[in-house]
Amino acid sequence: MRDVLKYFRGRGDCEIHLVSHVSPDFRPVEDDHCASEILAAEFPGTIVAPVFPNPSMAKSYIAGMDFFTGARMHACIAAFSSGVPVLPMAYSRKFAGFFGTLGYGACADCKVDSEEEILAKLKTAFETRDDLRVEAATAFAAGLCRLRVYEDAVHNCLAEFSGTRA
What we know:
By secondary structure, this protein is mainly alpha-helical. It has helices at residues 2-11, 32-42, 55-63, 73-81, 93-101, 115-127, 129-162, and strands at residues 17-18, 47-48, 68-70, 86-90, 108-109. It has a three-stranded parallel β-sheet. Strands 1-2 form a two-stranded parallel sheet.
């Protein structure tokens, strides 16, 4: 994370926001917000997003970004579904597979890629964020089409089961 912050801070043209996902009262070792505050103290000018009371508020905040990267799947999905160019930093096959299944190719695999590879992918993603915005919109539309097929199948199955075939 420090290398990521050094890169964006060094550019001189970025406003950096650290967005927390996990902020439990009972497990401070897993508190993203606390870790964000520590990093922000090391990198003056870095903005720590508030702890959001609900997922909708977090998504609204993320939707205002020009670019997003993160290692929390739901935060990356919030960016993706809001049309924000995103580089997911996947920590599991499920995380990487979700975006890959939708045809969104930009992803850093934190289980496989080296720190140098992840940073290189991040730099490339940021430099090509306009292209990623288009790729995300295309992949999101494809995902909605797939969802519609599933919804129609469930609807037809339920209608057939209830005897009210539409």
